Amino acid sequence: MSAADTHAADQPACPLASGDGLLPDELRAWMVLLAATGTVEQRLRSVVKETLDVSHDEFLILCLLAGQPHTGLRMTRVADLLGRPKTRLTYQIACLQRAGLVTRTSVCGDKRGVQVALTDKARELLRAASARLAGTVRQALADSMGPEQRAAMCALVPDLDDEAR
């Protein structure tokens, strides 16, 4: 038995993995997804701090910007996508800018608009850390989702069960 199997065996069964018909499959799957997300976030916090020296919330900003062209995104769009208050985001962006990980520029033709983009330094840090971060996510999901949870997730992601085999 591997360490992951032992850890998963120590976990109580997810109370939402099998239903009594009260909740539809989609809601049960959503609850399983929330539990798995919580486990992933908890595990990532220390790895992100150790490998990138940023907070988990700052890491989410970096990940969002990593999927964008070099021009980046408007700060209002980042706030919307992450569900963060704009004032909190302004503070986090300032921290990332001081660390040399993002740039802020004014949006041409809009004196209030601010565009945020990753620096080359941030792109290199993310490249170097990506394997470890992805491994942390995979392991957290493996530890938190047994066969019942994967079956429940199939209500949201039908191909998940096929990929697990």
From TrEMBL:
SUPFAM superfamilies: Winged helix' DNA-binding domain. The lineage of its organism: Bacteria, Bacillati, Actinomycetota, Actinomycetes, Kitasatosporales. Gene3D superfamilies: Winged helix-like DNA-binding domain superfamily/Winged helix DNA-binding domain. Residues 26-162 form the HTH marR-type domain. This is MarR family protein.
